Amino acid sequence: MYAALDLGTNSCRMLIATPDAGRFRVVDAFAKSVRLGSGLERTGHLSRGAIGRTLAALDVCASKLARYQVENVRLVATEACRRARNGSHFLAVAARETGLALEVIRPEEEARLAVISCAPLVSSKAEQVLVFDIGGGSTELVWLDLSSVDPSRRAQAIVNLEMSGGEQGPDTARIVDFISVPLGVATLHERYADVSDDSARFALMSWYFEERISGFKPYLEHLTGDNPETFQMIGTSGTVTTVGAAHLGLRRYDRRKVDGMRLSAQAIEEVIARFLRLGPDGRRSDIGLGRDRSELIMSGAAILQTLLRIWPTESMRVADRGLREGMLFAMMNARGAFCDGIWAE
User: Fold this and answer.
1) pTM to 2 decimals?
2) Which of 20, 72, 162, 228 shows a CA-CA span of 20 to 30 A to 50?
3) Distances (CA, A) of 228 to 36, 260, 265, 268
4) In the chain, where are the structural domains located?
């Protein structure tokens, strides 16, 4: 068995899985909204309440790992622990009280794992791929050039991806550029929380996010080409899956219907427009959103809409997957669990 734990700014998530025909089969899962980064933008510290909530969630994860006797484990923490002045102290307390030693990963590794998780969703026709991960405290963008990779090998090339830019072989995914913006759904929301007008706040968040990606190489250059089928956009985040579920009209979230779905740009615009019309009170009472997601959905939607405005595309793939899945794929691949390669679509 393999286990992967991702402690982010908003959530603590863990998967326990076994390899299964080029993918993996989930044995057990855990996800809890811990809001570890609550107030971090304002104070620079992890609060006592946030630490308490997170330790309780980590204790549940530790119990599951012990129950299944999992030996192949990777446990990571991201933006909140990277930024907080007391992040190292918190991790030491977590190790002492739960027995879980979490590693704080760099933004490059966070991006690599998010990209790897999306490997099965990469189209064999795609030559230029933009993968983005809208987190709670940061957003990662990775632009890949797969034009030199055989179509049948493109998914495996992404699983083998290295951010260091090592030796480039004929079947190597080339990273055109990568950027990690310290703005996610929680941090962007907190930055403009004092703006009372909903539409104005949304516009300001969109403008500010675009300002922060102006140094991203694909922002300055036309890389998508003339054939729309050779450019693919894949989004992995709670924002993207929430928009996908809203488009489907799901009253109760169903990962099987959302993960991997193709979502048109028009459908995304319609969902975001509906969220804006609802306003804060209407979003809070929307049964499909839930209270936690309703508060942060517009900051994520501002990021999503900005990306679609900069790189227009007819549709994008929705990925209900992220660091946990990327860690599992990478660990299993490194141990030869996928002898015949990754099962890609």
Assistant:
1) 0.82
2) 72
3) 40, 19, 13, 18
4) 2-105, 117-323
Q: With 60 as the cut, is the pLDDT of residue 340 above it?
A: no
Tokens representing 183?
Answer: 């703005």
What confidence category does residue 107 fall into, taking pLDDT thresholds of 50, 70 and 90? confident
Domains 2-105 and 117-323 share a fold: yes
Instruction: Identify the pLDDT of residue 168.
Output: 57
Among residues of the chain, what percentage have pLDDT more than 70? 94
HEC profile of 292-345: HHHHHHHHHHHHHHHHHHHCCCCEEEEECCCHHHHHHHHHHHHCCCCCCCCCCC
The pLDDT value recorded for residue 283 is 92
Instruction: Give, in degrees to the nearest 5, the angle at Cα 262 between 302 and 187.
Output: 25
* CATH class entry, domain 117-323: alpha beta
Fold classified for 2-105:
Nucleotidyltransferase; domain 5 (3.30.420)
Across-strand partners of 134?
Answer: 139
* Residue type at 165 in one-letter notation: G
**Across the beta sheet with 11-20, what order do the strands follow?**
23-33, 11-20, 2-7, 72-77, 103-104
Write phi, then psi, for 160 (nearest 5 degrees).
-85, 5
Strands (E), 139-283: 139-145, 174-181, 231-236, 262-264
Which two structure tokens, joined as six digits, stand for 68? 């299944």
Indicate the helix (H) or strand (E) that contains 50. helix 48-68
Between β-strands 2-7 and 72-77, what pairing exists: parallel, antiparallel or unpaired? Answer: parallel
The per-residue pLDDT for range 48-94, each reduced to its tens digit, is 999 999 999 999 999 999 999 999 999 999 989 999 999 999 999 99
